[in-house]
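S1.2 Input.
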Amino acid sequence: MEDNWGHSKKLHTYRYEILFNGIEASDVYKNKNVLELAPFMGWFSEELNKSCEQLDLVELHPTATNHLNEIFKKEIITKKVNVYASDIHHQIFQLEPIYNLVTCCGFLYHTPHPFWVLEGIAKLSPQYILIDTHCGDQAVYLKDSGKINQYGMRQSRQPTVPYNLVISDDVLLKSMEKLGYELLLKVDKTHADVSHLNLPEEFS
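S1.3 Output.
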């Protein structure tokens, strides 16, 4: 029986296929420098790596960074891929503004500091920013992350606060506008049919 990692890969790979179908590779990331924040197991990174010139990844989860170092072993040797085993909230302010595209997929709702991350992305002055996140009905609300803040722990490796901050798409767009960016494309995944993936109910 396939474990949760396998189910997660199926679901996330499908989500990423929808995203890739919604962006123009030749303009956005083909032969360009790309920064991916929170790549986790590299399911999005592998596709980016096929076309980009340079791929930098920022991830702190030890299992994930070990996996990233393994699947990109050849590219790391040639310096095409760099894996920063660092806290996103700090590493992003240490990087140079050399990126055409910065991606942040599935991470903003896993941190109590989403605006900090958005500000860090904007300071890198990329031409394009790709954000894939959960947007609630409320403008801004707190999400209980449990007794141990597993999401904060994933990046900082230490407890932060017991809540994560979730922001709606309207707040996200207004924030990016204040930081100098405008929406060029919104990819709607709400009606995506995942029945063909044969996932357990909790993954559907």
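S1.4 Remarks. DSSP finds nine helices and seven strands in the chain.
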